[in-house]
């Protein structure tokens, strides 16, 4: 956090604050909160008797120089924290939509009520597959071949490749500490968006144009923003790098050819 951030964050807390939602590693920025930053949040939760809903679905996708810490392990936080995990993100099967929430009984019992009356259940084969996957790797957590250790090493290579590619054509990517997305300012590419709808933010028009004309897909970052802040982020798009090398090869050809055309 920057110098003034703790004060700004505390200004949002008061006696009516019920909960704070934390996301680390963060989507879409890829930020991994460090111990000092988490301590600030922890202290505020305790001071204002606030719950913490901690979205940690990318917990195993953390790169060199960073370490994922669970805020629930901080003193005084277990009893006020629900930690959310994801099989889809952890095992790269996002279509499964299978995950978990961990916390004290007095909080989890209410989630069980919600689960019972909304989703009700998950597909049994998927639950069995997840159990088997955990059972295999939990026995070899210190082994480099353990999936939880090999996955971030594999993705870090892809991340660095995407960073080099974007930088080589003059873009300025925000290098993520974790997750599998990279945000970049794409205004330098400056395509002709006259055939796109004028009432949409720039990044929406950009990604639609890029998908249609360049066969390259991305996500507009302003989709993550409220109406007041969309204009601050509409020159940024989110690229995904958890792809086969053949897909990254194709993306590289498209972006480099695009850059040559612009110059």
UniProtKB/TrEMBL annotation:
GO terms for molecular function: cysteine-S-conjugate beta-lyase activity; kynurenine-glyoxylate transaminase activity; kynurenine-oxoglutarate transaminase activity; pyridoxal phosphate binding. Pathway: Amino-acid degradation; L-kynurenine degradation; kynurenate from L-kynurenine: step 1/2. It catalyses: 3-hydroxy-L-kynurenine + glyoxylate = xanthurenate + glycine + H2O; L-kynurenine + glyoxylate = kynurenate + glycine + H2O; L-kynurenine + 2-oxoglutarate = kynurenate + L-glutamate + H2O; an S-substituted L-cysteine + H2O = a thiol + pyruvate + NH4(+). Its cofactor is pyridoxal 5'-phosphate. It holds the Pfam family Aminotran_1_2. Residues 5-250 form the Aminotransferase class I/classII large domain. Keywords: Aminotransferase, Lyase, Pyridoxal phosphate, Transferase. Belongs to the class-I pyridoxal-phosphate-dependent aminotransferase family. Catalyzes the irreversible transamination of the L-tryptophan metabolite L-kynurenine to form kynurenic acid (KA), an intermediate in the tryptophan catabolic pathway which is also a broad spectrum antagonist of the three ionotropic excitatory amino acid receptors among others. May catalyze the beta-elimination of S-conjugates and Se-conjugates of L-(seleno)cysteine, resulting in the cleavage of the C-S or C-Se bond. This is Kynurenine--oxoglutarate transaminase 3. It comes from Pan troglodytes. The gene is KYAT3.
């Amino acid at each position: 956090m920057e110098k003034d951030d703790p004060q700004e964050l505390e200004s949002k807390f008061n006696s009516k604050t019920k909960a704070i939602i934390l996301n680390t590693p963060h989507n879409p920025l890829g930020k991994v909160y460090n111990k000092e930053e988490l301590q600030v949040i922890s202290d505020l939760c305790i001071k204002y008797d606030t719950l913490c809903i901690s979205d940690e679905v990318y917990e195993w996708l953390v790169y060199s120089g960073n370490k994922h810490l669970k805020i629930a392990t901080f003193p005084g936080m277990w009893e006020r924290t629900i930690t959310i995990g994801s099989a889809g993100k952890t095992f790269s099967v996002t279509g499964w939509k299978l995950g978990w929430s961990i916390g004290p009984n007095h909080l989890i019992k209410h989630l069980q009520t919600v689960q019972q009356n909304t989703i009700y259940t998950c597909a049994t084969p998927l639950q069995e597959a997840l159990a088997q996957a955990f059972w295999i790797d939990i026995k070899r957590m210190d082994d480099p071949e353990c999936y939880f250790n090999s996955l971030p090493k594999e993705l870090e290579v892809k991340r660095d490749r995407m960073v080099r590619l974007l930088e080589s054509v003059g873009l300025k990517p925000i290098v993520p500490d974790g997750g599998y997305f990279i945000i970049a300012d794409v205004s330098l590419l400056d395509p002709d968006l006259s055939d796109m709808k004028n009432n949409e933010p720039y990044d929406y028009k950009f990604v639609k144009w890029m998908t249609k004309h360049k066969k390259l897909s991305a996500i507009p970052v302003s989709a993550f923003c409220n109406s007041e802040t969309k204009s601050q982020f509409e020159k940024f798009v989110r690229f995904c790098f958890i792809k086969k090398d053949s897909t990254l090869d194709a993306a590289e050809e498209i972006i480099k050819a695009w850059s040559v055309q612009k110059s």
